[in-house]
Amino acid sequence: MSEIVNTPEPPYYAVIFSSHRTKGDNGYGEMADRMVELAEQQPGFLGIESVKEDLGITVSYWESLDAIKNWKNNAEHREAQRLGHQQWYSGFRVRIAKVEREYGI
After folding, report:
1. pLDDT(1) > 50
2. What confidence score (pLDDT) does residue 52 get?
3. Cα 28 to chain centroid, rounded
């Protein structure tokens, strides 16, 4: 089971990536692991949660919209996005939300 990210007091931002994969790995697993490693090195990164079944959902958490923009424009991440469009995803959506409140146990 994946860990639930321990985020700071809001506000902060969530990037929600929902996707349907194409058949076969085609290097996807290795690239996905690399993107997590790279994201963890980015200024403003707070954490990531991901589940992958028929529908994959990955939520990454960020301090600011600028941090998200910088991540989107990272050269290695841009290459992963290009490959995703070409071969790894049959469909996806990216949503960016401001987290204003959180609670849990």
Report:
1. no
2. 87
3. 14
Burial (CB count <10 Å: 0-12, 13-18, 19+), residue 22: middle
Question: HSE-up of 4 (CA within 13 Å, CB side)?
Answer: 5
Query: What is d(CA 58, CA 75) in angstroms, rounded to the nearest whole number?
Result: 20
The strand pairing partners of 91, in sequence order, are 20
Residues 66 and 44: beta-carbon distance below 8 Å: yes
The answer on pLDDT for 70 being more than 90 is yes
Start-to-end CA distance of the chain, whole Å, equals: 17
Token couple for 68: 């998200």
Nearest alpha-carbon partner for 15 in 41, 44, 37? 44
Those residues with Cβ within 8 angstroms of residue 85's Cβ, 6 or more apart along the chain or in another chain: none
Q: What is the pLDDT of residue 25?
A: 86
What is the rounded distance in angstroms from the CA atom of residue 14 to the CA atom of residue 17? 10
Prediction pTM value: 0.92
Residue 25 DSSP SS3: coil
